[in-house]
Amino acid sequence: MKAKRWGFSAALCVTAVFFIHGSSLALDDLKIQSESMVIDESSGNIKFSGNVMLRKDSITINSDDMTLFSSESEPDSIARVVALGNVVLKKEDDSIYSERAEFDFENSRIILTGKTRFERGTESISASRIVYNLDTGIASFTGSVDAVISPRAE
Asked: How many domains would you assign to the chain?
C-alpha cells in the first residue's frame, strides 16, 4: 500500500507547502498569539511562551513554547521553527500531535519527536520519531510504530 493512499505524507507536505517560501518561512500573513514574547535583536530570533498559537492560512500550530530562528540568507524570513510541549498541528481533518516539532526549512525536513501521532478520521499512525523529507516526500517512522490504515476508494 502506497503512503499517499493513507495521506500522512500528503498532510505533512500540504502543511509545509503553506509555510515554505524558498528555503524559509515567509512572514506574510503569519499570526502568532502567546502569553509572552522575547525578541533577540542580535540573532533575529523570536521566542514565544505560554499557550502559543501560530496560524498561517488554514493551518494552526499550538504548543507551550515556540522559537522562530531567522534566516541569514533571506531577510525577514524564518529558517527554522521549533515548537515544544503539547504540539498540535491542524489542517482541516488532519491532526498531528507531538512533544516537539521542528520545521527545518533550510534542510527541507520536518522532525517530530515525543509521542507523535497523525490522525485523519479513523486512520492513525504513531511512533516515537517521524522525519519527513520535503524534497523526496519520504516519511520515516521509528520507535514503536503503530498504524491503523483504512482502504480508500479510488
From this structure: 1
